[in-house]
Amino acid sequence: MSELRVRADLAEVPAYKQGRSADAGDDRVIYKISSNENPYAPLPSVVDAVADALAGINRYPESAASALTARLAGRFGVAGEHLVFGAGSVEIVSQLMRATAGPGDEVLFAWRSFEAYPMLARAAGAVPVQVPLTADHRHDLPAMLAAITDRTRLVIVCNPNNPTGTTIGDAELRAFIDAVPPHLPVLIDEAYLHFNQRADSPAGIEYFRAYPNVVVAHTFSKAYGLAGVRVGYAIAPTTLAAAMRKVSVPFGVTSLAQVSAIASLDAEPELQERVDALVAERERVVSALTAAGWQLPETQTNFLWFPLGEHTADAMGVFDAHGLVVRGFPGEGLRATIAETEANDRLIAAATELRERELG
Ligand SMILES: *Cc1c(COP(=O)(O)O)cnc(C)c1O
Q1: Is 89 in the pocket of ligand 1 (CB under 6 A)?
Q2: Looking at residue 26, what is its pLDDT?
Q3: Given this model, what pLDDT does residue 105 score?
Q4: From which domain of life does this come (predicted)?
């Protein structure tokens, strides 16, 4: 049998593992808390906007996304040329890697962090350089600085970090970016920005304004609850923004994605109430788990990280028995999303059981 020829270096690309869905055929109510999705159904105003736009789906979307560009340019006080759109901010990460790095070049980021980073770096032909988190599950910024070489083409800072939920403070991020050579792009991935209530939190947009090499990535998937339509964006220096557009997939951001994003910006106060409710639920769960004896890394996201090491696989079985599908990283830990109240109650019960069974 002859093998069809594909790029040999793709053998290095890890496959993306989607958060597991509930098993079909299981008649219990199962909550999928494995993908950091927003548990709320879309707002009626967003559904209406999408319904209106359905009549036009025989046409290509407007690739410049000019209405959405104008909205975001106004909100952030930046020129439209700095905004770049993608099919989710995962495509923004991909564009940035492919715009900056090629074969033999290095893309530097913390590890463990967002699962897509190594995969997308390899797909760009580049070498992912993964700098271990500190013992308390945070970015080790001094070690990241020390890992910069003359082959480094892009540095990624995920704040807050997925999957550990940990954050970076303003002073430490400023010291870090001050020390990065100004010709080296730094991406601040702020997918969980809305959930971050840390008092001294650095705002990526301020860094974009202050530094010539900072790119910020935002998504409509998490706080805005639009994971299914796929829309995210970067705020990037002009040169990078233009290069990112060159490597983007033409018409990658659908018309439905564009109208949903605009309708969501129109409904921000309502969406903020949902974010506030999820943050309150997060605090409720964290308090209950602290009372049960857990000392989890402080999360500023819509998920919790359980650093369970070798107990991870057994612990997943316990969550499963409680009707919860979580995201496990065997040998390291598991991530559980703050979701519906009932799912959160079960999360408390399952995690309390882990303590009783001495699995955490
Ligand atoms: C969810 C997530 C994204 C982007 O998700 P999209 O659905 O592609 O917008 C980006 N970065 C991190 C760290 C995430 O967790």
Answers
A1: yes
A2: 66
A3: 98
A4: Bacteria
* Two structure tokens written together for 264: 């969501």
Ligand 1 pocket: which of 90, 260, 327 to mutate (most atoms within 8 A of CB): 90
Look at residue 25 in the predicted model and tell me its pLDDT.
65
Other CB atoms within a 10 A radius of the CB of residue 135 amount to 8
SS3 for 254?
coil
Looking at residue 20, what is its pLDDT? 67
23 CA to centre of own chain? 25
CA of 121 to the centre of ligand 1 (A): 15
**CA-based nearest residue to 154, from 207, 209, 95, 89:** 95
Helix 66-76 and helix 255-266, axial crossing angle in degrees, nearest 10: 30
H-assigned helices in the chain: 44-54, 66-76, 89-100, 116-123, 141-146, 170-179, 204-210, 238-247, 255-266, 268-291, 312-321, 341-356
> Given the structure tokens 């997925």, which residue do they identify?
162
Write the single-letter amino acid at 143.
Answer: A
Which domains are seen in the chain, by residue range? 18-42+269-356 (3.90.1150.10), 58-266 (3.40.640.10)
Question: In angstroms, what is the span from residue 90 Cα to ligand 1's centroid?
Answer: 5
Q: Is residue 269 reached through a cis peptide bond, with omega within 30 degrees of 0 on the bond before it?
A: no
| CA 252 to each of CA 89, 220, 244, 300, 341: distance values in angstroms, whole numbers, following the listed order | 12, 15, 13, 30, 35
Contact (Cβ atoms closer than 8 angstroms) between residue 354 and residue 61: no
Q: Is the CB of 85 under 6 A from ligand 1?
A: no
Alpha carbons within 13 angstroms on the beta-carbon side of residue 281 total: 26
The residue ranges of the chain whose pLDDT is under 70 are 1, 19-26
Residue 205 alpha carbon to ligand 1 centre in Å: 18
CA dist 42 and 107 (Å) reads 36
Taking Cα atoms as reference points, which of 298, 345, 270 lies closest to residue 196?
298
3-class SS of residue 153? strand
